[in-house]
Design goal:
222 residues, two-stranded antiparallel sheet, 9 helices, globular, disordered C terminus, endoplasmic reticulum, very-long-chain (3R)-3-hydroxyacyl-CoA dehydratase activity, EC 4.2.1.134, fatty acid metabolism
């Protein structure tokens, strides 16, 4: 309906503004302060980044309610990956926030999202530009695996801090005698991360083929 389409357009516009602000801020700060700007990336843009990622949870609801025809599992995996790494790994360990990998990760996320939300906004209005369509369905194929590697590196960097501080590790008293050592949970999650990456890459290739085909743009949303 027109109302739902307008709602999705406003949502995409909000996400575009947020990610564009982050992306522009990162570039300006790097051009102004050089390498020194990388260490405090999280402190300068972390709040807006967290807001944008929390808003992205709405995309799962959009798919569940049927107003967005995207596939649920690939989008769910991508969103939960970011939520876990951003809120559980980076946000909880101040020592990790100053690492260069956080800047690399934010750069990859926002580059992908600026392109994706720009494409989505125009698609809501029935506007399709060949260069933008090609970029939207092609850029994610090399950049998504790079972002997964950055996520995995951020998790590995955080492990010593989770081990020394005991963050999220739980030891229940008797009679339960049960404990959860959170670094082990993160190590197991690395396996899930790379397994999910293989599935999502296959989905990205199928999406690209469906929308670009042999070079023709799919001018009608499925």
């Amino acid at each position: 309906s027109f109302t739902m389409n307008m709602y999705l357009f406003v949502y995409d516009l909000m996400q575009f503004c947020g990610h564009s602000w982050i992306f522009t801020n990162m570039i300006i700060r790097f051009m102004t302060f050089g390498k020194d700007s990388l260490a405090d990336t999280f402190y300068s843009i972390g709040l807006v980044m967290r807001v944008c990622q929390l808003l992205s949870v709405l995309e799962i609801l959009h798919i569940l309610t049927g107003i967005d025809k995207s596939r649920l599992l690939p989008r769910f995996l991508q969103i939960t990956e970011r939520i876990i790494v951003l809120f559980v790994v980076i946000n909880s360990q101040e020592e990790v926030q100053g690492k260069y990998v956080v800047c690399v990760l934010f750069f990859l996320w926002n580059l992908l999202d600026v392109v994706r939300y720009t494409y989505n906004m125009l698609a809501r209005m029935g506007i399709y530009y060949l260069p933008l369509t090609w970029l939207n369905f092609s850029l994610c194929i090399p950049l998504y695996p790079l972002s997964v590697l950055a996520k995995a590196f951020a998790i590995c960097v955080s492990l010593p801090y989770f081990e020394s501080f005991g963050t999220y590790s739980i030891k229940l008293p008797l009679p339960f005698a049960f404990s959860i050592y959170f670094p082990y949970v993160l190590k197991m999650y690395l396996l899930v991360l790379f397994t999910g990456m293989c599935f999502i890459i296959q989905d990205l290739f199928s999406e690209r083929k469906a929308h670009l085909g042999s070079g023709n743009i799919k001018n009608k949303r499925s």
